[in-house]
Design a protein that fits this description.
Elements lengths: L11 H24 L9 E10 L9 H8 L4 E3 L5 E9 L5 H20 L5 E3 L21 H14 L3 E6 L4 E6 L10 E8 L4 H10 L1 H8 L4 E2 L2 E2 L5 H8 L5 H5 L6 E2 L8 H11 L12 H6 L7 H7 L3 E2 L1 E8 L2 E12 L4 H19 L11 H14 L4 E4 L3 E4 H20 L3 H17 L3 H10 L6 H16 L10
Parallel strand pairs: 10-11
Antiparallel strand pairs: 1-3, 1-4, 1-7, 2-3, 5-6, 7-13, 8-9, 12-13, 14-15
Helix pairs in contact: 1-9, 1-11, 2-3, 3-12, 5-12, 6-13, 12-14, 12-15, 14-15
Length: 488
């Protein structure tokens, strides 16, 4: 959710001063892209996972403060909802068996965290939306204690001027509800992959990430239920889009852009994205720092660009540009944040291998795919995949409409293998993790399909009793770390 802030109110003067500072940061960033030495020699990759907390019955456990105190590991952090926590895995280089390092580190940390958090009645679950959430969990009382979250909720509701409306139609069921806070956003627990890149290469990596977003969603869908309703295979997508929407109905009709945004065009510079953020979106958290970024740059330092980064953190692109500083050196990375958490660490790492490999292969292709398809086609693929999951039919240049699994098996897995090889990933890592993707395609089973099939076998039960029972089976399987396509 970004940087922590103190609770406060904002005046018109605060907003004016902040807008001017954000624009100054943008000018400095543009100059840095032309003059500064960004960290590009040996790119790092990163991983974050958001988790749900449940009690013994499988219902949400509003205990993230107690769980974090019990876990006592700085890698784990608070999240928006009291039934959420997040783990940030130490960055790694793929050529140094980074995928294996990620997997071993994540499994060790989660096992240790589960043992400790269970002592306070909170068990960890990796799933895109906790299926046992009920309307009573969706109020402001479930927001975490960190002042940032309540402040952000207040600012979004204030900008919107009315309660948030959630309306999602699945193949057979429909959900219509309202909320007086952004707490429904907390229902969306995701996996985020970070890939560091140079300013020159950033457009290719971002464009490639946008091209494959629909394929990623189709393969990794893991959020079919919300508030007792079976909706999209990846219901996180419409839920997140609606839960943080600052626009009234009138502003939507006028074409004002949403803060959860796929985007609207291919880019030629990372500056395009930051400049769009400043041009199209008013600040939600107009907090102004004392740093003079131009003076810092003129003196040979590296400006923090606090306001630009804070603003960027309140615009929820599915592939987000990130400016950061490590060991005094600035760097850029693409944050791929569209996939659900889970079902297992093995599945999650297979998704990581597929993304890292495929995005590199496409970014370095002599004839970029994004020159062969419209941006709107990529966006349509994204939403079709969220609706249909692994059964989605997607558009692909040179093929036309094709099943997601057929596309992956015929075209994309070889590219992902080549991309991982270019990263320096050894053959055994590539084969094992991409083999999970291959089997997922051959069996047609991802997290969403498994959960829906299990629920179908309990059609005669009370819906929430069935959801609790299937979630308990899911959680048991999750701890085996056997990929979801092998589950009974």
């Amino acid at each position: 959710m970004g940087e922590e802030v103190d609770a406060q109110e904002f005046s018109r003067a605060d907003r004016t001063r902040h807008r001017e500072k954000v624009r100054r940061c943008l000018d400095v960033f543009e100059r840095m892209l032309g003059e500064s030495a960004f960290d590009t020699d040996d790119p790092m990759t990163g991983l974050e996972v958001e988790l749900n907390l449940v009690d013994e019955a499988g219902d949400p456990a509003l205990k993230n403060a107690e769980a974090l105190a019990a876990i006592a590991d700085p890698a784990f952090q608070t999240e928006l909802g009291q039934f959420n926590i997040e783990i940030n895995v130490e960055p790694a280089k793929l050529r140094e068996r980074g995928l294996t390092t990620f997997e071993e580190s994540l499994r060790h940390s989660l096992n240790d965290a589960e043992a400790k958090s269970s002592e306070v009645g909170a068990h960890l679950v990796m799933i895109g939306i906790l299926p046992t959430l009920q309307p009573g969990h969706m109020g402001p009382q479930s927001i975490s204690a960190n002042p940032r979250y309540r402040l952000l909720s207040e600012q979004i509701l204030q900008a919107r001027g009315e309660d948030i409306t959630i309306s999602i139609t699945g193949p057979d069921e429909r959900l219509d509800t309202t909320s007086d806070s952004i707490l429904p956003e907390a229902a969306c627990t995701s996996t985020q992959f970070h890939v560091q890149t140079s300013p020159d290469d950033f457009p290719e990596y971002w464009n490639a990430s946008q091209v494959i977003a629909g394929v990623q969603l189709a393969l990794g869908a893991n959020a079919p239920y919300l508030l007792g309703k079976q909706l999209w295979r990846e219901t996180r997508i419409p839920l997140f889009e609606q839960a943080t929407d600052t626009r009234s109905e009138e502003l939507k009709v006028q074409g004002v852009r949403p803060r959860v945004w796929f985007g609207e065009r291919w880019i030629t510079s990372v500056f395009d994205l930051f400049e769009e953020n400043v041009r199209y979106f008013p600040a939600l958290l107009p907090i102004t720092d004392d740093e003079d970024p131009m003076a810092v740059l003129d003196s040979g330092g590296v400006p923090q660009l606090h306001e630009l980064r804070l603003h960027n953190g309140t615009i929820y692109r599915w592939n987000r540009p990130v400016y950061d500083i490590s060991s005094g050196v600035p760097h850029l990375r693409v944050e791929n944040r569209l996939l659900a958490a889970g079902p297992t660490v093995a599945d999650l790492m297979a998704n990581a291998a597929f993304y890292f490999g495929l995005v590199r292969a496409l970014a370095e292709n002599e004839r970029p795919l994004w020159t062969q398809m419209s941006f709107s086609a990529a966006e349509e693929n994204f939403h079709v995949a969220a609706q249909r999951g692994i059964d989605a039919q997607l558009y692909w240049p040179g093929i036309g409409q094709v099943g997601a699994t057929e596309l992956v098996l015929r075209r994309l897995l070889p590219l992902a293998h080549a991309g991982l090889e270019a990263w320096g990933v050894e053959a055994d890592e590539r084969d094992r993790l991409l083999g999970i993707i291959e089997q997922r395609c051959l069996t047609g089973t991802n997290g969403a399909e498994w959960f829906v099939a299990k629920m179908a076998g309990r059609a005669g039960q009370d819906r929430y009793d069935a959801l609790r029972a299937v979630l308990e089976e899911y959680r048991t399987n999750m701890h085996t770390n056997e990929p979801v396509h092998t589950w009974d």
